[in-house]
Amino acid sequence: MSSTLSKLHCTCEKYCNGGEWVSRATWFRHANDRTNNNISGFQPSWVPPVEQAADSSAGSQDSSGGDGNGVRDSFEDDRDDHWQPHHEPNTASEQSPDDDSDLAPDPGNLREAQEESDSPTRTPSVGSPSPEPHDDASAAGSEDGSEPLPTSNPWSDPNFTPNVEELQDSLNFIRALRNASLDNGDLSEHYLIRLRNPPTHELRVDNPDELYSLKQYIASENASEKTYMKFAQNHNHRYRENPMLSLDQVKSRVAEWSGVVPIENDMCPNSCLAYAGPFRELDRCSHCGQSRYRQLSAQNPRQERKSQQNFYTIPLGPQLQALMRSPESAHRMNYRYAHTEEVLEELRKNGGKIHTYNDIFHGSEYLQAYIRGDIKPNDFVVMFSMDGAELVKDKGSNCWIGIYVVMDLAPDTRYLKISVLKAFFLPGPNSPVHMDSFMFPSLHHIAGIQKEGLAIWNAAANTSYLSQDQTVQMALLVSI
């Protein structure tokens, strides 16, 4: 994707030699070295006017008095004073609307102005009418012949069609996620019924032979599949009366016991894209031209077509259900709710201040979402992360792995290997090109759960609950 799609054009001579595409933060830092501070360049959404944003920032220091009833009222009253970044008064806020100097405020003030709930320049939500932009901002670029900034968000228009191919692909994936549901996902009917009706009892493996095979399978997790198969062969040769399960049998038992089953999707053998979402019907990679399927044999031209490369996605919902099926694990998953209530109590007692910040649940964005009810006690908060990994040293074994870190667990537990949930595995050795397509099966599943809800049986409380109004949501934090 073009590097200028979300950047601004800086004309300062000191750093950009009279014209470079830079990030928004860099554009503001170069303001004093630039003679023309008009914003020019493509932006996907409306930008607050410079003078109005500064005025809103200056006015954000005012706080309204609360009635003192409850921790939420106390926090709502004090959060603007204690949680928003403090900035010195900006000279731009003291200018009259007729002043042509058009000084650029600090980026923090812009964000503060956007987040201020009663500010006239608050960033509009998707699909809502956009405020009238400032004359200087709407006329930006008139001197250099560029187009004025858009006054509304075109991405919210269902009939909007970008001219750039990469943007069109991204928009198609966004629209596909908006139409996502569990019924049009990749889970089989059997496991979809299991997802909607999870077991309401603890997992117990009563068959000693099956339990023995399961323990051996877990013990060989760092070895190859051939290791388990050879071990089972030797065991069955010696103990014919108590045979071990084959590799396929033990995998089938694990999937049935846990409800966690991988979703297989085709991908380009060069790791350009995944044949998922809007790319599902392609027969050839649109990036490198490689065929999706292996060449059919001339002796058997009617044989079923097989893809050249596949990757696996592990759906999140069944993994969260499995975590709540154990009393010990379900109790550990209560950390986020208990700790959040402690933080809110500290805010109430200390006038909206927190003395020690040591977890994401001390952040204003999370606490405000919790107070608004966007994140509820029975919700799950997970962080998604992905990166490349070299499986074997000094060999071409690179692959890409996606994971979920369950933030509902305590910090000393959530990052342990046993607590980290798997999202997907992409075989190498090439790095993925169109990452949206590889992430689509994971995000499609999460979007379906957010719409329908996730049935949970809490083994610690021995209670079942089903979200019918998105009570069980996923707050997804992305780290790449």
Question: How are the strands ordered across the major sheet?
Answer: 3-4-7-6-5-10
Main sheet overview: 6 strands, mixed
**What form results from the Cα inertia axes?**
globular
Chain-averaged pLDDT: 75
Overall SS class:
alpha+beta
Amount of helix: 25-40%
Residues in β-strands, percent: 5-15%
Note the total helix count.
17
Low-confidence stretches: 1-5, 40-72, 74-147, 468-474
Rg is 27 Å
How far apart lie the N and C ends? 17 Å
Sketch the topology as an H/E string, one letter per element.
EHEHHHHHHHHHHEEHHHHEEHEHEEE
Count of DSSP strands: 10
What this model shows, in words?
By secondary structure, the protein is α+β, with helices and mostly antiparallel strands. It is built from 17 helices and ten strands. It has helices at 13-16, 24-29, 50-59, 71-83, 107-115, 135-138, 165-178, 189-196, 208-219, 225-238, 247-258, 316-324, 327-332, 335-349, 364-372, 411-414, 435-452, and strands at 8-10, 20-22, 263-267, 309-313, 380-390, 398-406, 421-426, 456-458, 463-465, 474-479. The chain starts with 7 loop residues before the first strand and ends with a strand.
